[in-house]
Amino acid sequence: MADVTTLAEITGNMNTVGYGLAAIGPAIGLGILMGKVVEGTARQPEMAGRLQGIMWIGIGLIEVLALIGIATPFFLP
């Protein structure tokens, strides 16, 4: 019979790790969105107002992903 060797043991609540991993996506999305809005505003300054409106809609949608990530552990058993 082979002995089972434990290389690493993780203790504690894994929901925190899950939320940390779930928050990476929205963070990357916000960075890309902000960068593209700044780039678009620099290329066409007359479109700055329209780009900002679209940016706020995008930020709202991205933040919903983060909120779903933080609320999901409360709904899962």
UniProtKB/TrEMBL annotation:
<dbReference type="GO" id="GO:0045259">
    <property type="term" value="C:proton-transporting ATP synthase complex"/>
</dbReference>
<dbReference type="InterPro" id="IPR000454">
    <property type="entry name" value="ATP_synth_F0_csu"/>
</dbReference>
<keyword id="KW-0813">Transport</keyword>
<keyword id="KW-0406">Ion transport</keyword>
<dbReference type="InterPro" id="IPR020537">
    <property type="entry name" value="ATP_synth_F0_csu_DDCD_BS"/>
</dbReference>
<keyword id="KW-0375">Hydrogen ion transport</keyword>
<feature type="domain" description="V-ATPase proteolipid subunit C-like">
    <location>
        <begin position="19"/>
        <end position="72"/>
    </location>
</feature>
<dbReference type="InterPro" id="IPR035921">
    <property type="entry name" value="F/V-ATP_Csub_sf"/>
</dbReference>
<comment type="similarity">
    <text>Belongs to the ATPase C chain family.</text>
</comment>
<keyword id="KW-0446">Lipid-binding</keyword>
<dbReference type="GO" id="GO:0046933">
    <property type="term" value="F:proton-transporting ATP synthase activity, rotational mechanism"/>
</dbReference>
<keyword id="KW-1133">Transmembrane helix</keyword>
<keyword id="KW-0812">Transmembrane</keyword>
<comment type="function">
    <text>Key component of the F(0) channel; it plays a direct role in translocation across the membrane. A homomeric c-ring of between 10-14 subunits forms the central stalk rotor element with the F(1) delta and epsilon subunits.</text>
</comment>
<dbReference type="GO" id="GO:0033177">
    <property type="term" value="C:proton-transporting two-sector ATPase complex, proton-transporting domain"/>
</dbReference>
<dbReference type="GO" id="GO:0005886">
    <property type="term" value="C:plasma membrane"/>
</dbReference>
<protein>
    <recommendedName>
        <fullName>ATP synthase subunit c</fullName>
    </recommendedName>
</protein>
<feature type="transmembrane region" description="Helical">
    <location>
        <begin position="16"/>
        <end position="33"/>
    </location>
</feature>
<keyword id="KW-0472">Membrane</keyword>
<dbReference type="Pfam" id="PF00137">
    <property type="entry name" value="ATP-synt_C"/>
</dbReference>
<keyword id="KW-1003">Cell membrane</keyword>
<comment type="function">
    <text>F(1)F(0) ATP synthase produces ATP from ADP in the presence of a proton or sodium gradient. F-type ATPases consist of two structural domains, F(1) containing the extramembraneous catalytic core and F(0) containing the membrane proton channel, linked together by a central stalk and a peripheral stalk. During catalysis, ATP synthesis in the catalytic domain of F(1) is coupled via a rotary mechanism of the central stalk subunits to proton translocation.</text>
</comment>
<feature type="transmembrane region" description="Helical">
    <location>
        <begin position="54"/>
        <end position="76"/>
    </location>
</feature>
<feature type="site" description="Reversibly protonated during proton transport">
    <location>
        <position position="63"/>
    </location>
</feature>
<keyword id="KW-0138">CF(0)</keyword>
<dbReference type="InterPro" id="IPR005953">
    <property type="entry name" value="ATP_synth_csu_bac/chlpt"/>
</dbReference>
<dbReference type="InterPro" id="IPR002379">
    <property type="entry name" value="ATPase_proteolipid_c-like_dom"/>
</dbReference>
<dbReference type="GO" id="GO:0008289">
    <property type="term" value="F:lipid binding"/>
</dbReference>
<keyword id="KW-0066">ATP synthesis</keyword>
<dbReference type="InterPro" id="IPR038662">
    <property type="entry name" value="ATP_synth_F0_csu_sf"/>
</dbReference>
